Amino acid sequence: MHLQKQLPPRRGEAPAPAAVPPGHYAAAGQPFFRPPPPSDPPGAGHNRAPPPERPSPRPPYAERPLPRSSSDHPAPTAPGRGPPQHAYPAAAEHPLRRPTRKRSSSALASCLAATAFLVLSAGGAGAALFLLFRPRPPDIAVAAVRLPSFAAANGTVAFTFQQTASVRNPNRSPLAHFHSSLRVAYAGGELGSVYIPAGLIDGGRTKDMSATFDVPAIPVAQQQQQQQPQPVAIEVESLLVVNGRVKMLRLLTHRVQAAKVCRVALSPLDGRVLGFRC
């Protein structure tokens, strides 16, 4: 920039005001003065650099733009390549979520279902073993009925009752019998009973049981005392009960019971056994 040389004032003229540098205000009472820009030589405008731009004033904090996230500016990709491909697009679109209560309830339901299945399986296995090795009651077969002693007097009869039966154990395990008894009844009333001693019957074996007891005098109907061509019979009932226990798989004990009812026809004249059916 070339400044013009200030000449001294002439005689009788007031001195010119001092020049003010560009961009400043003059003193009070002096006009604003900005010297004209220097004239460039011809042809110099083509090589002159443009004046630098002044920075714009910084906006206040409230008006400043917020920094953008990385998602707003996707990462640059290599030339010739498209966006990154995902092996599972559904997983890329839907991020992982926190487990909800539905998953916990489904897990609880699965545990309950597994427990129920185990219980049912154990019950089914136990039922199958029970049906295969289930304890069965003994088989009773009455072999004979006798009256070792008999007496008739004044319309009553008294006798000794004896019954023999074969008891078979159909189980593989031994049968321990106890509280077994023999009872005799006539005309709806019990005449007497006797208990059979306890014992043991091996698996698949048969044992004979015999019981004998005295029957007190019982009245006999008048038509049965009259002399008739054919003897008239009186009928008594006998009940043989066998109670026992059988071990299953050598661990469990099962109680079994069997009973046999027989009707025995007796002669009131001499006490002969006319027959019996069970």
Would you kindly provide a written description of the structure presented here, covering whatever features stand out?
- The chain has 278 residues and is mainly beta.
- The strands form two sheets. Strands 4, 5, 6, 8, 9 and 10 form a six-stranded antiparallel sheet that branches. Strands 1, 2, 3 and 7 form a four-stranded antiparallel sheet that branches.
- β4 and β5 form a beta hairpin.
- The longest helix is centred in the middle third of the chain and has 33 residues.
- It starts with 88 loop residues before the first helix and ends with a strand.
Alpha-beta content class: mainly beta
* Low-pLDDT windows of residues: none
Evaluate the radius of gyration.
Answer: 64 Å
Distance between the termini: 151 Å
* SSE arrangement, N to C: HHEEEEEEEEEE
The average pLDDT is 75
Strand content: 25-35%
Number of helices: 2
- Oligomer kind: single chain
Task: For the structure shown, list the relevant keywords.
35% strand, 10 strands, four-stranded antiparallel beta sheet, mainly beta, 2 helices, 278 residues
